[in-house]
Amino acid sequence: MSVLFVGVDVAKATLVAALWIEGKAQNLQDCPNNDDGFLSLAEQLHKACHTFARSSVHLVLEPTGGYELALAGFALQQGWSISRPNPAQVREWARGRGYRAKTDRVDGRMLAHYGAEAHPPCWQPLPTEVNELELLLRRKEDLEQLLRQELNRQQALKGRPGVPASVTTSLERVVDALEQELQELEQAIKQHLSAHAELKVAAKRLRSVPGIGAKNVLWVLVLLYRWHTLTQGQGEAKGLVAYAGLDPQAYESGTSVRKRASISRKGNRGLRRRLFLGALGGIRGKNVLRAFYQRLVGRGKAKKVALIAGARKILVWAWAVFRDHTTFDPAKVSRELAV
Questions:
Q1: Which residue, 93, 118, 143, sits at the end of a domain?
Q2: Which of 55, 93, 226, 322 makes a 20 to 30 Å CA pair with 266?
Q3: What percent of the chain has pLDDT over 90?
Q4: Judgement on whether residues 89 and 134 belong to the same structural domain of the protein
Q5: Residue 207 within a domain
Q6: Cα dist. 121→16, 84, 86, 160 in Å?
């Protein structure tokens, strides 16, 4: 099947698109980022498919804070394939191909070129209930951050002379309002889980994994659904670890260059922090995670390195539980660790 690769640089108001045809980029007419613009883009692509004898369309969209999602939804309705590659990977690839300028037009051509050469995996949206859960979690995270900021301001002003009563009262009102909003949002998350039994059961199974608790279980669940969707259910644990940015990366060259290995830190930073904290709490219990950690420390590994390895192991175990629809089996893991 001949494919028409289309790169689209998406901004809040505009779409700048280009084709990659026989080793060359061809610009398309700019379109507004709205329903009329989507129809205009579809008309241009229909003509291009006829002109260049292409039977399918593959859009390559760089994630831009959600501005690209409306176009992605429209594209799925048209039966087009869609890729939303990691921007850092695209820029690294582009530097190797000689791209230096950074404009909307250049980005559109670069994305089309990247699609034709790299064949990035196709993107599919998360199931509706999982997407809604993620939005609830992100809103909760935003409110928690706002609450921490206000509490810090409140603490900084405590005991400070000359603070007007109106300032103190204002802070108290905002703190009370944020705490109330958080309570209502937590209730909304509980209701969402109750309304979607599959999510609730999956979260309960994940709680059987050492290092996964109430504070990180839903974030891990969303990640696992995203990896399952991205890989069409064929993903492996090693790829998931890399997707989360927990994969170790060595830095060696010849006999003289030896830098300390570190993790790639790609993906969601907040999720890595939650997994690290989960490992920190998990090793305090009497479980296989603690045994794994102690074995690494006993071999001379630094405690922080062992904790990162523990976070990685939590994710691997969680994927097995999610993929196989089963609970965590510590006896089986103990036997594997003993080998």
A1: 118
A2: 322
A3: 77
A4: no
A5: no
A6: 22, 8, 11, 57
Element (H, E) at 248: strand 248-253
Quote the number of domains for the chain.
3
Q: Are residues 37 and 108 in the same domain?
A: yes
d(CA 210, CA 228): 22
pLDDT digits 0-9 by tens, 87-129: 888 999 999 999 988 899 999 999 999 999 999 989 989 999 9
Q: Is residue 200 part of a domain?
A: no
DSSP letter for each residue of 224-283: HHHHHHHTTT---HHHHHHHTT--EEEEEETTTEEEEEEE---S-HHHHHHHHHHHHHHT
Convert 48-68 to b/e letters by CB count within 10 Å (16 or more is b): bbeeeebeebbbbbbeeeebb
Phi, psi of 168 (to 5 degrees): -60, -45
Q: Which SS3 state, helix, strand or coil, does residue 214 take?
A: coil
pTM (two decimals): 0.85
107 is a domain residue: yes
Could you tell me the two tokens for 334? 């103990």
Q: Are residues 56 and 135 in the same domain?
A: no
Contact status, residue 78 vs residue 57, Cβ threshold 8 Å: yes
Placement of tokens 């206000």 in the chain: 150
How far apart CA 326 and CA 169 sit, in angstroms, is 51
